[in-house]
Amino acid sequence: MSIKRLLLTLCVCTITNLHAAANNTELKTISDIHSAYKNNSTTAEQLTRTYIDRINALNPKYNAVISIEPTAIEQAKQLDALFKAGKWAGPLHGIAVLLKDNIETTGTLPTTAGSLALKNNITNKDAFVVKQLRQAGAIILGKANLSEWANFRSSYSSSGWSAIGGQTHNAHDVTRNPCGSSSGSAVAVALNFAPIALGTETDGSITCPASVNGVYAIKPSMGQVSRAGVVPLSSSQDSVGPMAHSLKDALAVLSVIQGEDPNDVSTLNVNRKLDSIAPKPSLRIGALPASKFTVETQKLYAKQLQALKDAGHTVVNVEVKDDLSTLYVDEYAILLYDFKAEINHYLSQTPTQVTVKSLDDLIAFNTANKKQEMLYFEQDILQQANAVDLSEKQQYQKTKARYQALANRAISNLYRNNKLDIVIAPTVSPAWKTDLINGDNFKGSSSSLPAIAGTTHITLPVGKVSHLPVGLSVIANQNAEAAAYAYAAIIDNVLGIKKPE
Question: Which key words tag this protein in UniProt (predicted)?
């Protein structure tokens, strides 16, 4: 071959590859990706390479991803071979998924929770949700950054910062905070580092980052999804949920990762139907007040409520009438107790190469590594948790029963007293400027009641204040997950941003 012809061939190949990469970055939903596979416009291997290239190019600016799974390309090749043989692996065939780095996986990647203390925490075990993803044909692409220890280390932390991954930056404005603790997961989906990511939430850690980064997310109800294989914060409230470019995709992933698991007793005897509610032409929607959110968020919310009315739905202004004065104090007490008990157990089971085996050890480790671990904020929450007397089990059970009953009653009363189909509210105000010295600056949140009550909480990307996304929360009643899924879809059809950004 002549040099001229070789150069021409290389040029054509390069242009073809650039076009393929450009086309691949436009593939954001499961259905679009599957269509591209089936019409042979791309392969799982090509698409996975595109994600990895995109991460390598953009991640230094955003710090959304901690690590890429070394076997990701091989996973993709195996799925391509399966498809070539006329077989389909499952509903997530060839769909790349990023995992918050408190979710365990087989292989060589550690599960760090963002902490240097767990940099060698290679458990070589798949969490229950990861097993479910693999069985459905998903590609485990890597681990996403997070607020260290799921934002349960310091009372003045900056969401999205970890000693392992640094400060994650908002996908829409790098000077803004990504919210946490599932910050990297939300930013990664928003930047199309992967079409799907998993996050975890104790109170707001899925819904807040999804809202401020403009993606869809579901915080499932308690017992829908197993927490086995996830670094714990509180079994009273912890959940694992999906982030995606559409509600349909988030629900598809939820249907895969949910399931009964004997290693998580909360999942036993739970109803998991996703589609048992017929659509309604007109909903009776309860709109919670927005006075705690920014003024611009309130204005956007008012427009959204009017749009729902114009679409034929009845919108009723509602507010929680129950006395919640003890709720948040009780919540914090439960989280401190749970964290001490559960992190002690988790650390005691880590591989031998992890030297930190207790909360005491962790606090000492952070002190010894202060220049890296406590560069911006310290560990007052860890110290408060460590001071908890775990022998006070009776008081713990009493407090837990009281705060869960109060949250359950508050949500149930909202629905019953106002005869509602569904409850909505702004998820959180737009992202604030990241401040590594003073910490976060939240303006309103809708996460606590569903987090404590253990009900489903969905956030939909429905608009922007200036250039910053604002989500709308859909808060389910007790044992009414299917209704929340169906009615969220109806609301999304009216308000949702139809084309992924």
Answer: Hydrolase, Signal
- Averaged pLDDT of the chain: 94
Mean local confidence (pLDDT), 425-436: 98
Question: Among the options 147, 162, 182, 205, which is catalytic?
Answer: 205
Residues counted in the chain: 501
CATH of 28-262, one of 3.90.1300.10, 1.20.120.550, 2.70.50.60, 3.30.565.40: 3.90.1300.10
**Phi, psi torsion values for 376, nearest 5 degrees:** -115, -35
Specify the pLDDT at position 54: 98
The pLDDT of residue 4: 40
Q: Which of 271, 293, 309 is nearest to 212 (CA)?
A: 293
Query: What's the pLDDT at 279?
Result: 79
Helix-then-strand count for the chain, H and E = 16, 13
**What integer pLDDT is reported at residue 498 of this predicted model?**
53
Does 236 qualify as catalytic in the annotation? no
> Where are the chain's structural domains?
28-262, 327-394
Q: What is the pLDDT of residue 271?
A: 87
* Distance of alpha carbon 241 from alpha carbon 133, whole angstroms: 12
**H or E segment at 107?**
none
Peptide bond before residue 239 is cis, with ω within 30 degrees of 0: no
- Of the residues 158, 159, 181, 226, only one is catalytic, namely 181
Q: Which residue among the candidates 28, 67, 100, 473 is catalytic per the annotation? A: 100
Predicted confidence (pLDDT) per residue in 469-496, tens digit: 999 999 999 999 999 999 999 999 999 8
Q: How far is it, in rounded angstroms, from Cα 333 to Cα 340?
A: 11
